[in-house]
Amino acid sequence: MSLKKLISTKTMAALAVILTAFASTSAFAQEAAAVATAKPVDMGPIYKSTLFYVLLFLLLCLFIAIVGKAMKVYELTRESEGKSEGINWDLVNGIIFIVFLLVGLYGVYWEYTVHGNMILPDAASEHGKKIDEMFNITLIITTIVFIATHIVLFGFAYLYRHQKDKKAYYYPHNNVLERIWTVIPAFVLTILVLMGFITWRSIFYKIEDPNHKPLSIEVTSSQFQWDVRYPGADGIVGLKNYKLITAINALGIDFNDKHNLDDQVADEIVLPVNKPVRFILTSKDVIHSFYLPHFRVQLNTVPGMTSYFEFTPTITTDEMKAKTNDPNFKYLLLCAKICGTNHFNMQKPVRVVSQKEYDEWVVKQATYLTNDLRKTFKLPLLADPAAKPAAADTTAKDTTAKTNQLALKK
């Protein structure tokens, strides 16, 4: 090739490179200017979509598959060339096991320190303290066993990985070891079960004290609400029958039972502190679950069956606000069964107050037996308090009119 032709070829190539670089720079500059002038794109909805994370997962799988294939090609190439093994995969797998162990132990620490602060505050009932003690004991034991077994599991995977200069020792079984790992778990589980049984009996089998009778409150569940009935002045919640349910008598109250005549209804549950409360639980339609998390209370409400739960609240709402440092704190009654579309909204506020506050509150609550129900069931009507002032005014007007008439006659 002549020098002139070589110069010409190289010159043309250089010019082509310069032109390409200039065009690319111009294109990048225009794109950057367009991006700078365009409105920022809100990526929030994309990050919240399920499809985004599915595609991200598939992309990760594809990346791992490509790396795996590349490594396989590398190994086959070395093998075809008669070279020694390039990567000791047994060592790599052993190291991965140790990494998983360390990450897992950090995850346990993170759960305890971060999510551990999100658990419920101290139990607000007498029996709740016993349940919390059982929970803590069980959690401590299982955490110790979990950490110890996983250290052994992943540690053995690393220490006893396959090595060419080592041979596994045949060790079929050991009677002493088998007795140890059978007897110790059986003993621990027996203790935990006995603790649970004793606690359960102390909650559901109470000795009635005639001097300290519990306050009875009936709660009826239905989709998707709680109906609360207080016993009234006689202290007894009256009987009801599902066959008596009508549009006007939604709970099926049996008014042949005189104890129903003074029963009261409320939009919230108010409990006196340090006084036993006995909930009478029923359901009108499907199975619900009467759940008071702060009191450690949960019991299913089943159609056609009456359940009971008795406990003693020990912390008022105001005291719990101070303990949690949350001025908006409130106790809630929730449903712990997925009972339908509005299950999430099946809530009822609960307040724990002093006995004096409770007495002042309960006398203000209306009775279930309204005048409309009295008419339906042919019971004596009560005078309407709102009509009394009007009646007084009418009497005054009549007296004035009669006086005026007498004056005119004279």
Automatic annotation (TrEMBL):
Its main location: membrane. PROSITE patterns: COX2_CUA, COX2_TM. Residues 112-207 form the Cytochrome oxidase subunit II transmembrane region profile domain. SUPFAM superfamilies: Cupredoxins, Cytochrome c oxidase subunit II-like, transmembrane region. It is an enzyme of class 7 (translocase). Its cofactor is Cu cation. It is a multi-pass membrane protein. Pfam families: COX2, COX2_TM. The chain crosses the membrane at residues 53-71, 91-110, 137-160, 180-200. InterPro entries: CcO_II (IPR045187), CcO_II-like_C (IPR002429), Cupredoxin (IPR008972), Cyt_c_oxidase_su2_TM_dom (IPR011759), Cyt_c_oxidase_su2_TM_sf (IPR036257). This is Cytochrome c oxidase subunit 2. The lineage of its organism: Bacteria, Pseudomonadati, Bacteroidota, Sphingobacteriia, Sphingobacteriales.
